[in-house]
Amino acid sequence: MSETDDRPALAVRLDDLFKTVRPKGRRWTNAEVAEELKRVNPEIKAGGVYLSQLRTGKRSNPSPDLLAALARFFGVSVAYFFDDEAAESALGEIAAIEALRQAGVRSVAMRAAGMKKENLEAIMAIMDQYRQLQGLPPVNDPAEPTGSAGSSDPE
């Protein structure tokens, strides 16, 4: 959640799901999500307008059933909507999945599978340099060991 966003946390987190969970490479609309929720849970009474109001913070008290249905739909725990750590973890996982869906990323991962650790570290260093040249932020990969080659440079 950005520091300048004055919407309630629930609104920001729901909006983040709409923006980051992308089946077939496109974003879900409010109406599509509402339709799908009703298809799976006919007792849910939420239309596209209501979901839009939740996303903008104009409405802020959805039923527990609706929150559970939204969590299932987007593949997150209900805790995502209330717990900062759960939200951060879920968005990190979603971002990783979306990165893998991007054209070329899967191909790079497939080529890297089975390579020696030293070779992977050299390739990652090259990729980090290209990211820097393109003005992209550094990758903060918790799986990478701290103190790896080049990470101690204070630039």
Overall description:
The longest helix has 18 residues, at 84-101. The chain has helices at 9-20, 30-40, 48-56, 64-74, 84-101, 105-112, 117-133. The chain is mainly alpha-helical and 155 residues long. Helix 1 packs across helix 3 (48-56) and helix 1 runs parallel beside helix 5 (84-101). It starts with 8 loop residues before the first helix and ends in a 22-residue tail after the last helix. It is 55% helix and 0% strand. It is built from seven helices and no strands.
Structural descriptors:
single chain, 155 residues, mainly alpha, 7 helices, disordered C terminus
Strands, helices and their partners?
Layout: H1 9-20, H2 30-40, H3 48-56, H4 64-74, H5 84-101, H6 105-112, H7 117-133
Form type: elongated
- Gyration radius over CA: 19 Å
Pairing-aware structural class of the strands and helices?
mainly alpha
Strand content: under 5%
Helical segment count: 7
Instruction: Please bin the fraction of helical residues.
Output: 55-70%
Distance between the termini: 27 Å
